[in-house]
Amino acid sequence: MADSTQNGPMPGGAGGGAVQFLMANKLDTAMWISRLFTVYCSALFVLPLLGLHEAASFYQRALLANALTSALRLHQRLPHFQLSRAFLAQALLEDSCHYLLYSLIFVNSYPVTMSIFPVLLFSLLHAATYTKKVLDARSSNSLPFLRNLLEKLNANQQNILKFIACNEIFLMPATVFMLFSGQGSLLQPFIYYRFLTLRYSSRRNPYCRTLFTELRIVVEHLIMKPSCPVFVRRLCLSGISFISRLAPTVA
Question: Where do the TM regions start and end (predicted)?
Fold first, then answer.
């Protein structure tokens, strides 16, 4: 009798455990839903199945949903808001604050496909992690096909994070190009530079800093070849020196 009771179906059917898990973690569930919505809107922007006009609105919706997720995550990390310099300094150390700023930078700008990929991929990775927890709460062997997809996504997490960091870096010259092409504002490159310095100094995500180092090594290797013209070598070395001076000090 004890065994049959223990192994029997959970109250409310097979999904009863998942529902209880979702209700017990309401803030995490809200972020999960907003991340799924971000993935949905981002996908409809990248693949404009409903037309180009609708794609622009999905671009804004994706960034607004990401801003909501980032604000919820920041509240989870720093629940007691204080209007002080110390609280602001602590908030700027959080990755969620970085991407709240990121969303605000691009939400009213000209839609740029490159700018949506970090939002899409971060939301996808975090949503996949929480989806696996929901599946585990439902049943240890439920939906094996979806579990397999989530495992493949998790196995490529490092490559995805490097791709995101690459987008973060190359968006800096893109904002300057947008300014000169009349599609960006004068303040956007300066605000984005501040965002990039925050990403470079991130305690939780070192991929931006790592990718800067890797790019420098690759460029230095290429320009030191005898076939490289002298003026190109000097130009690249000057660029590397300039970027290195702009890099913030990391503790």
Answer: 32-52, 99-125, 169-193
